Description:
The chain has two domains: about 1-160, Leucine Aminopeptidase, subunit E, domain 1 (3-Layer(aba) Sandwich), CATH 3.40.220.10; about 180-499, 3-Layer(aba) Sandwich (Aminopeptidase), CATH 3.40.630.10. It contains 14 helices and 20 strands. It has helices spanning about 30-40, 45-50, 85-105, 125-140, 165-190, 200-215, 225-230, 230-240, 290-305, 350-365, 380-385, 395-410, 445-450, 485-499; strands spanning about 1-5, 15-20, 60-65, 75-80, 110, 155-160, 215-220, 245-255, 260-265, 270, 310-320, 335, 340-345, 370-375, 390-395, 415, 435, 460-465, 470, 480. Strands 7, 8, 9, 10, 11, 14, 15, 16 and 18 form a nine-stranded mixed beta sheet that branches. Strands 1-6-5-2-4-3 form a six-stranded mixed beta sheet, sandwiched between helices. β3 (about 60-65) and β4 form a beta hairpin. The longest helix has 26 residues, at about 165-190. It is elongated. The two termini are about 30 Å apart.
Amino acid sequence: MKFEIKSGDICKFKCDAIVVNLFEGVRKPGGATATVDKALDGAISSMIKAGEIKGKQGEAHVIHSFGKLPARMIVVAGLGKKKDLTLDRVRNMMGDMSRVLRSHKCKSVATILHGAGAGDMQPADVAEAISEGFLLGAYQFKVHFTKKEDEHNFSSLTILEPDSSKVLAIKKGCERGRVIAGATMLARDMVNQPANHMTPTHMAAEAEKIASKYNLELTVWDREHMKKQGMLALLGVAQGTREDPKFIILSYRGDPSARDTIGFIGKGITFDSGGISLKAQDFMSDMKGDMAGGADVIAALGAIAELKLKINVTAIVPATENLPGGRALKPGDVLKASNGKTIEVVNTDAEGRLILSDALSYAVKQDISPLIDLATLTGACHVALGDMYAGVFSNNQALAERVLKAGQAAGEKLWQLPLPEEYKELNKSDIADVKNSGGRYGGAITAALFLQEFVGDTPWVHIDIAGPFMAEKNKGVMVKGATGFGVRTLIKLAIALSK
Length: 499
């Protein structure tokens, strides 16, 4: 899709559709909406007066121009109450609009800079929200369909701004939104792929594509090299599968003068059956997405490189399947992680924390700091926070607050949960240093406490994305299927830390 920023009269622009807006409670349209209303002989005002258009958040009213404007149709988008306007509301509104416009077979679309100036929102940030929201809302995954004729793709999105002095800033914001959305859609693609099309080898290939495109450093370890590194927790999970596990290390050095390197670590279970502790059949097909954390960190690194941020970041992905079989890990087995800690395996379905223990231990040995890990780790976190929120756990409150702020800027909902010292007792084993499940109650917390055993004093944040990694329906920037949740937060965090 082509993005353009133009300084001109919205009523003279030729395209399939123009998107304008209305705030809730407004009885008379203003700005660009008023200009369009006048060209339509007061059609918008009449619909407001009749109560057809109320400006409520999520509303979309299509008005055909019938030749009164060069555009074929006008869509009036509701933005809710003006005092509640945020960038995330603009972002989600554009996501909704993309699907409305697709249903009307629109290809070329023009829009105004919605809400710029309201609530101190800067033109560049609004432009970023517009381009990002439109792309994410329009996302489709149709790789495996054989019928192609029903596909609809947008050709262009033009932001019309009458003040030419703002055009350069708007262009920069629009491009940033395009890059962030592109990374999020890459993660969605990876998670949406069936497990036979996204094995550990396929994940390594995706990392290779990004490394090649942006000239990044990539190392991929096989089973033998992992064994030499003492990664016996990861290899324990990999025992039951014939697919080769991979340990993926992708590095970006945007600030060669600095020694510090941030670590993004993503869980890469490309299919999780639960192992010997077999999962229930319901929703097991969704477990092709148990590598969402790994997809997130790979995709985020590509965007960070494309944005040329002045920062050093290393993405680490331990990748394997978790399957039952004659050679599979058994409840009661004891494994040793690469930092020397022994782990009693009481539940083979608590495998994500096992592979992350070796990844975190490796990062600590390499003096990578701070560490941010993303994982579809626990059903308990999904139960606690639902589909919209990811859980945040940390041993460093200042770092946690930066991550929470990044999530807010990205429009991704995060909620911090505690790491109480008293709950460590639940992870104690009678025959090893620690066991891999603390039981049913507080499961998201005990899983995070398990991970904490492998980071020492290194500043660390764990983000449990088990709830929001998949969506059940289309809404705003979210589409049914993989969401790419976490990619935008990681990019926003890197942008903030690079400054």
